[in-house]
Write a structure and sequence with these properties.
This protein is mainly alpha-helical and 106 residues long. The protein folds into two domains: 35 residues; 51 residues, no CATH class. The longest helix has 14 residues.
């Protein structure tokens, strides 16, 4: 995959689609990439997650790698988790009132 990546980035730079003012001094930053194949689908997803957690706890893998295997970036996941923590929790009565299913006291 690296030769393909190099061709795509080089074409983008030469075409003007990618701005690379420091390409000559920082070539590695533009042409390096990590490729992780997608994870195989599992028959038992619960066991797959448990195995991932065991590998993580044993120090045999990283959160970044596990998340990348699922097709996401760690920055996306961390931003979503932070947003979930800071978002106000919806209560059952709030969701009932919004959907019009709440008891209006009648």
């Amino acid at each position: 995959m690296r030769p393909i990546w190099k061709q795509v980035i080089t074409f983008g730079i030469l075409n003007g689609d990618i701005a690379a003012p420091d390409l000559e001094s920082n070539t590695r930053a533009y042409l390096s990439a990590s490729f992780l194949p997608p994870k195989f689908l599992q028959v038992d997803p619960l066991k797959a997650v448990q195995a991932d957690m065991a590998e993580l706890e044993a120090g045999l893998t990283s959160r970044r790698k596990l998340i990348a295997e699922r097709g996401y970036s760690i920055e996306e996941i961390d931003a979503e988790r932070a947003a979930n923590i800071t978002a106000p929790k919806a209560t059952e009565t709030d969701s009932d009132n919004k959907s019009g299913n709440g008891n209006s006291g009648v």
